[in-house]
Q: What sequence folds into this?
């Protein structure tokens, strides 16, 4: 399954990427699985997802929790708690 | 109406636009958020707002729709800027219009509380010691919680 991943703010700075398209292994079912898989991809991902409980996630541009199933999402974004306004 | 833009906005012109040719409005409340020149004792030279194009607009529209469901508003407007800004510049504008003041005051606060905790924006403050991402404030989550229990205002 091919999916677009987006990174914002310090998550983007730590991964060194704004976005990328990846093919997910079949055993990646939830957002938590995806974070665990990303952490296996290199030190920059380990650093970005070190405090994974702080990281917020959006599935197809809607806020979701880490136990959410990825299902047929086209776009998943990872970012710190928002600080607009 | 919602707008996400890099350029500055004219607060007076935006309010006039909302009330033009309207005689059913009795109260207009506006909130403007601006860039402060200090953070944790350090001087800020630039603040840069990053956002998630696409989701930002969706979230602001969702928040505005929610406010219009809870309160009977004659009009509402959210403008949020992104990109680099200097101290003193405008960041965000929220305007609410209603028949009586309480509705407009409450809806404006609600919009700001929801925007602060849901709209995908991130602030980076830059000073002479480099840049630092602003941490989310726990008080913003507390401010949001009061709306979970607040009764819908009857008109």
A:
């Amino acid at each position: 399954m091919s999916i677009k991943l987006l990174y914002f703010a310090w998550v983007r700075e730590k991964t060194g990427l704004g976005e990328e398209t990846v093919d997910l292994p079949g055993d990646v079912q939830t957002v938590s699985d995806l974070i665990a898989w990303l952490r296996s991809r290199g030190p920059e991902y380990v650093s970005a997802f070190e405090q994974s409980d702080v990281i917020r996630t959006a599935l197809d541009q809607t806020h979701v929790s880490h136990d959410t199933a990825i299902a047929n999402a086209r776009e998943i974004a990872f970012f710190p708690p928002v600080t607009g306004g | 109406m919602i707008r996400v833009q890099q350029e500055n906005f004219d607060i007076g012109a935006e309010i006039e636009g909302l009330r033009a040719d309207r005689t059913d409005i009795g109260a207009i409340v506006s909130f403007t958020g601006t860039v402060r020149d200090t953070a944790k004792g350090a001087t800020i030279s630039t603040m840069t707002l990053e956002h998630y194009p696409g989701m930002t607009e969706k979230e602001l529209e969702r928040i505005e729709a929610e406010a219009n469901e809870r309160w009977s508003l004659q009009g509402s407007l959210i403008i949020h800027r992104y990109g680099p800004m200097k101290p003193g510049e405008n960041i965000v504008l929220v305007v609410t219009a209603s028949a009586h003041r309480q509705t407009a005051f409450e809806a404006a606060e609600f919009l700001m509380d929801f925007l602060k905790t849901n709209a995908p924006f991130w602030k980076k403050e830059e000073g002479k010691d480099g840049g630092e991402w602003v941490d989310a404030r726990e008080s913003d989550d507390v401010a949001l919680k009061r709306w979970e229990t607040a009764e819908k205002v009857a008109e």
